[in-house]
TrEMBL record:
InterPro entries, A to Z: Calcineurin-like_PHP_lpxH, Metallo-depent_PP-like, UPF0046_metallophosphoest
Domain named Calcineurin-like phosphoesterase: residues: 1-194
Family: Belongs to the metallophosphoesterase superfamily. YfcE family.
Pfam families recorded: Metallophos_2 (PF12850)
PANTHER family: CALCINEURIN-LIKE PHOSPHOESTERASE DOMAIN-CONTAINING PROTEIN (PTHR12905:SF0), METALLOPHOSPHOESTERASE (PTHR12905)
Name of this protein: Metallophosphoesterase family protein
Amino acid sequence: MKILAFSDLHLARRAAEGLVQASADADLVIGAGDFCNMRRGLDQAMELLSGIAAPMLLVPGNAESAEELRAAAGPGATVLHGEGLEIGGLRIFGLGGGIPPTPFGDWSFDLTEAAAEAMLARCDAADILITHSPPKGVADRTSAGMSVGSPAIHAAIARVQPRLALCGHIHDCWGGHGAIGTTEVVNLGPAGTWFEVAP
């Protein structure tokens, strides 16, 4: 299965146009959160992506809540937040939000580590894990060198060992990658990254 994955669109029109164009070759498109800015412009963001004909799997970022994303997503999109599904023979689980909570204030859609751990406990097996936030210690460093990822996500990856763990959130690490056990971890960014994953 040819998968086009991205994160942190933040209403960037040029990036959205590139994703729509590239998606013509995709069997599946994955969006790992932060489609809009500060809970504003989500309908506009979904309109920018409306030319994507392939099935889409989306998780909320900290810039939009799960409920807001479900309400705004188009008919070809499925929102995952603490749940999974099987598509094309691949088991995929998703969890959105800023984990651990961000310093950005009341507008940010965040989860505590304990809440994230409880939701990730529902994932017994997955080929792909989609989270908005990165795992602690991998593709999670700010420009100041601080590791700000989630221990709960790291622990879930270590336990489940999906083939891919896809995330975003930390803009300074867009394109960053690493491994947790046998799992490849990739911080996506808005340009779009291609993966080919067999069932």
